[in-house]
Design goal:
globular, 6-stranded parallel beta sheet
């Protein structure tokens, strides 16, 4: 509570995620995490506790961070571990149903506790481009987009999408629903938040051999855009495309809550860190966001990933740095943990002071 009171004192509006890839291990070991229906009630109780404890200090909430990562990295995304020979799709989509019901319940509870509360969902965003204009590639890209948007379709629209029936049938999935679930899901979110680091590319011939291992969400390498040190496509226009698509689809305000560049930083002899590549990345993506706003997309806000260097979730490396503040630590855990400001720190301080108008 003290943290939020300090934020309020300085005019900082907090945005709080209830679950950010951090299912308690007790719930994983004792209940099997989100495969278990009991998690819905646990989460609802936890959410109410947070809403009541921080009422008046926090009004913007996200339920699950990058909820679609459940399909791509089930353990980190939702604490799911599989038994031998079980239908993993059944487990994942049943767990997804439980999370979606829990999210809808939390949204309802937030509005009951305080009608001023606003609740959003959170997508690991980035459109899939067709590898070519071959119809099969276009269809493959559409299917990949649906795979990621499935969760947000439910959270933003309040019901399962029409394509879900065939998806479940072909994957051998039978969702077990409790009485009242359909009504609960109608508690749709107030806004749609998302992360955006890179666009993606898909074809009908995608497989493990030709897809990039650089990201949790697999993609073909797009030859028309530059790539980061870790092979992520740098595509500011892709952000504008993604934002327009999402607003066309959901007609709800958007909030870009993660955007940044994972890169290797060099500490110069004088202690400076001249990360102009990070400044360039962020500048061009902020400009693309401004273009989307001019397109008519309502945007609630923008937050980067991240403020301070930390271990990268996708690779487990400290050397994949995102922050404005450098932390003296390497991939083997060596270092003093001393912090120092990068060139991007001073640049971004100017950006936020001008509300994005000064990008020089």
């Amino acid at each position: 509570r003290g943290l939020f009171e300090e934020c309020q004192k300085y005019g900082i509006e907090p945005l709080v995620t209830l679950c950010h890839f951090d299912v308690p291990m007790h719930l994983v070991m004792e209940y099997g995490s989100w495969r278990n229906r009991k998690m819905v009630d646990f989460f609802a109780c936890y959410a109410r506790t947070c809403f009541e404890a921080f009422d008046g200090l926090v009004k913007y909430w996200l339920t699950f961070n990058e909820i679609n990562i459940l399909l791509h990295s089930p353990f980190s995304g939702a604490g799911l571990a599989f038994e031998a020979d079980e239908n993993q799709d059944q487990v994942k989509y049943q767990a997804a149903h439980h999370e979606l019901v829990a999210s809808a319940l939390a949204t309802r509870i937030a509005h009951e506790v305080n009608p001023a509360n606003q609740v959003g969902c959170m997508l690991a965003g980035g459109n899939f481009y067709p590898w070519s204009c071959k119809p099969e590639d276009v269809w493959a890209a559409l299917e990949k987009d649906r795979e990621n948007l499935f969760f947000i379709d439910v959270q933003a629209r309040g019901a399962y999408p029409s394509y879900a029936a065939r998806l479940f049938r072909e994957k051998g999935v039978a969702i077990e629903m409790a009485s009242g679930d359909v009504e609960i899901l109608k508690n749709s979110v107030d806004f749609v938040s998302f992360s955006y680091y890179a666009s993606r590319c898909a074809s009908a011939e995608m497989n493990e051999q030709n897809s990039s291992a650089a990201n949790v969400v697999k993609s073909l390498t797009n030859p028309y855009i530059k790539r980061s040190d870790w092979g992520w496509g740098i595509d500011p226009l892709g952000l504008r495309i993604t934002m327009n698509m999402m607003y066309d689809r959901y007609q709800k305000p958007l909030f870009l809550v993660e955007n940044g560049l994972g890169a290797q930083d060099t500490v110069e002899a004088d202690g400076s860190i001249n990360d102009d590549y990070r400044i360039s990345y962020l500048r061009e993506h902020i400009r693309a966001m401004a273009q989307a706003i001019d397109d008519g997309v309502p945007v609630m806000g923008y937050t980067t990933w991240g403020c301070i260097d930390l271990v990268a979730a996708s690779t487990g490396e400290m050397s994949k740095r995102y922050g404005f503040v450098y932390v003296d630590r390497d991939d083997l855990g060596r270092g003093t943990l001393a912090r120092s400001r990068k060139k991007s720190f001073w640049w971004y301080k100017k950006v936020i002071a001008s509300n994005g108008r000064d990008l020089s």
